[in-house]
Structures are given as C-alpha cells and as structure tokens.
Design a protein that fits this description.
It is built from one helix and six strands, in the order E-E-E-E-H-E-E. It is of the alpha+beta class.
Length: 75
C-alpha cells in the first residue's frame, strides 16, 4: 500500500497532509489483508471528501476518495 496523505487535525480543524515525518511511504500488506480490503471496497464504496491541504485557513482544497469513513459516511 502506498500512503501519500493523512487526515489530521490542525487548530481543531481537519485537513489533509503528508504522513508522519512528512514522507510518503510504502507499507507491505499480506495477501489476506489485500483480499479483505478488496471485499470491503465491493460493499463500501470510497467517499470523496474535500479538505484544505495542511493549513485549515489558507490551504488549497483537495478532494480525495476515502476508503474508511465514519458511520455517517463523513470524514
């Protein structure tokens, strides 16, 4: 899995930003996890969320489909 962003809280507002240490990373997944994730995506479609990038007040808005959301289908 290639992790290129995260949702984080800045001044009590949600934003997209780089993962920990400001670096994207590749995370190996076992075949069993890939299978479960694929099954999840058949039932639960990604939900596109728009948030600012890094700065909640000046960051450019970015729309990203999220695989995991709240029970209300929000961020």
């Amino acid at each position: 899995m290639h992790v290129v962003r995260q949702v984080k809280r800045v001044r009590s507002r949600l934003v997209f930003g780089l993962p920990k240490n400001d670096r994207d990373r590749r995370v190996p997944l076992p075949a069993s996890a890939v299978r479960v994730l694929r099954e999840h995506l058949v039932v639960f479609k990604p939900v596109t969320i728009t948030l600012p990038w890094e700065d909640p007040f000046k960051g450019d808005p970015v729309a990203v489909p999220l695989v995991f959301t709240t029970t209300r289908g929000t961020r």
